[in-house]
Each structure stands twice: as structure tokens, then as C-alpha cells.
Specification:
With 203 residues, this protein is an all-alpha fold. The chain is built from 11 helices and no strands.
Length: 203
């Protein structure tokens, strides 16, 4: 683990999600690990490994660690924690991959490998939006569910640094977006998305 990982805590990124905890600016790797153990001990046993990793890795590993926490929370039937964890991860992904000028400027300071390490491979980002879409479906929020599944489909077509685009083959995401549209009562869009899903993946 590099020093950049251990020193990334100064932004206090855990505060917005878990009660204002600011990890501060640690002086040594040993203190970071010690403080991570103390921080994680305040949570339920199932969550402790994930909270330890969140504290230890800081912003550098936040997307992956929030994603892992979200999945574990879904398994523990804690959709409240899962939603907040995925939203934290998505906010960081969108800071780099959103289709706007701010994200474009942010991407310009990273090379392809650093973006990939920081925010994940395309399929990993796709799955993040897929999990969030499932939670929206669970809430009956079909509009946001559709948007999440379409975002998952989009990320499957992007290279790690978004400097190239590929033909998507993840037909499931378009299918789920169509299903969300059908549940919302938008039959026209549901049919359109279903056809796009079949074109991407006949199965």
C-alpha cells in the first residue's frame, strides 16, 4: 500500500455517510491502521472489515470499498446502508465519467491506468449502477431505476479513461431499463428498450 493511499484521509470523506467522523491527517501508516481498527470497532461485526478498509484506503479506494460495503449491506438486508454506500461510490465515479465539462477536466489530469485504478474497470462500474438500480426497483422508484440501468449500460461501452467507446453487449441492462419503464406505465419506451436489448444480446 503506497503512501498516497494512507494520506488520502485528510478530506474526511467518511463524514458525510457515517456521522461526521473525520479521519484527519495521520503522520504514519501505523497510526492509520491503528485508527482504522478503532473506527471499525464501532460498527456491527459484519460491517467492520468494510469500515476498516474504507478508513485505511481513503479516497483512493473509496469506490471499490463503498461498493463492497453496499453489497454486504444488501446481503444483511440493510438497504439504507446499501443505498448510501452505492450513492457515495456513484458520486465519485460521476466526478470522472459524467458527460459534462467538469468531468472532462477531471479526466484530463489522469492517465488511463490511474483512472482505472481509482474508479474501476468498465464492467465494475456497470455493476455498481446495476446494484443501485435494483434498490430503486425495490423502492418502486422506476424512473431512477431506469436511469441507473441505462448508466450501467453506458459504462459497459466506455474504456477506462473514456477516451474510446465500444459497442455494448450487456443486453440485460437495457432489458431491465425497459422493464422499469413498463412498471412505470411507459409501454412505448419499454418496447424500444426491449428491442435495443435484443439487438445487443439476442439471448
Amino acid at each position: 500500500m503506497g503512501a498516497h493511499s494512507l494520506n488520502a484521509h485528510s478530506q474526511g470523506f467518511l463524514g458525510g455517510l457515517f456521522g461526521g467522523k473525520d479521519t484527519g491527517q495521520e503522520e504514519s501508516a501505523e497510526k492509520v491502521l491503528q485508527d482504522a481498527k478503532v473506527f471499525a470497532s464501532a460498527f456491527q461485526p459484519w460491517a467492520r472489515p468494510f469500515m476498516y478498509s474504507l478508513y485505511r484506503d481513503g479516497e483512493w479506494g473509496a469506490v471499490l470499498n463503498f461498493n463492497r460495503l453496499g453489497l454486504a449491506a444488501m446481503e444483511q438486508k440493510r438497504p439504507d446502508i446499501a443505498r448510501r454506500s452505492f450513492d457515495e461510490a456513484i458520486a465519485r465515479v460521476e466526478a470522472i465519467y459524467a458527460d459534462d465539462e467538469n468531468a472532462k477536466r477531471a479526466r484530463s489530469v489522469f492517465n488511463a491506468e490511474k483512472v482505472k485504478d481509482f474508479k474501476g474497470e468498465p464492467y465494475e462500474r456497470s455493476m455498481l449502477y446495476y446494484y443501485r438500480g435494483l434498490l430503486y426497483l425495490q423502492e418502486g422508484d422506476y424512473q431512477n431505476a431506469r436511469a441507473a440501468f441505462l448508466a450501467a449500460d453506458r459504462h459497459d461501452t466506455l474504456s477506462s479513461a473514456e477516451d474510446a467507446a465500444y459497442v455494448g453487449t450487456f443486453g440485460l441492462m437495457k432489458y431491465l431499463a425497459g422493464w422499469a419503464s413498463s412498471c412505470e406505465g411507459d409501454k412505448v419506451r419499454a418496447q424500444q428498450l426491449a428491442e435495443e436489448a435484443r439487438a445487443a444480446d439476442p439471448a
